[in-house]
Please model this.
Amino acid sequence: MPRSGILLLDKPQGLTSNQALGRVKRRLGIRKAGHTGALDPMATGLLPLCFGEATKISAFLLDADKRYLAELKLGVTTDSGDADGAVTATAEVPKLDRDDLESVLTRFRGPIEQVPPMVSALKHKGKRLHELARAGIEVERKPRPVTIRTLDLLNLEADRLTLRVDCTKGTYIRSLAMDIGEVLGCGAHLTALRRERSGPFDLVDAVDLATLEAGGEDEARTRLLPPDLALPDRPSVDVDAEQASLLQQGQAVRSSGAPADPVRMYCEGVFLGLGRIDEVGTLRPRRLFKLD
Model:
């Protein structure tokens, strides 16, 4: 049974990402693990989890684009920007049609500046913002650049909106909901959020926690995906056995591949890890993987 790989979890509502990770770790019996971008307890959906050697590529999934299905309630503002927060304001919802909303949504498509919510894992002087928020402390947060690649209106029903959002890392959908509500003049908050995609991985391939925990350890480990699947768009290079041995000792070898960083390295179809090819054709190892 594999001891390394990526497990695609459909995270249930009510658990933090770390709580979900802990339960999957116990089922797999693998201690070295990490998730690749937290989901709030209210949120559900795709949470790629990296185990063993696959934790070496978790940063690439953290940096990957994400896709979400989001439901918003108009006319009610909460202190957290979602349904878990306390109501801070209510307002009458104006009569809206799709054209009205499309003109508003256009303002949020493409590169934007977004202020992170207080209820977030970002740090201020060493403390998590959500810890400060729970203590009733609000601090100034600088806007951060993010990109909303697509923002599609799927449904409009009275005071409810359903949106599909494709975005870059660091995008807060709660902040997006609040900002849309502010432009509409009535306020809004997030009532449901489901992550449908993370980098190359899709929710349709994920397993729910109940199904995973219903089986045994061996069955759970069969769901581990090879770590190189996280980097399908990166170039690859094949080396022979002698070169593979040198690379695994941390030495550089010659390569006919084009300059790239990182590049996936293989020997006879086996993934060795990540390397870098410079302008003169020298391949150097960056992150090597121990084989199961």
Notes: The domain at 66-198 is CATH 3.30.2350.10 (Pseudouridine synthase). The helical segments are 17-28, 58-62, 98-105, 129-134, 173-184, 209-214, 217-221, 241-248. The mean pLDDT is 92.
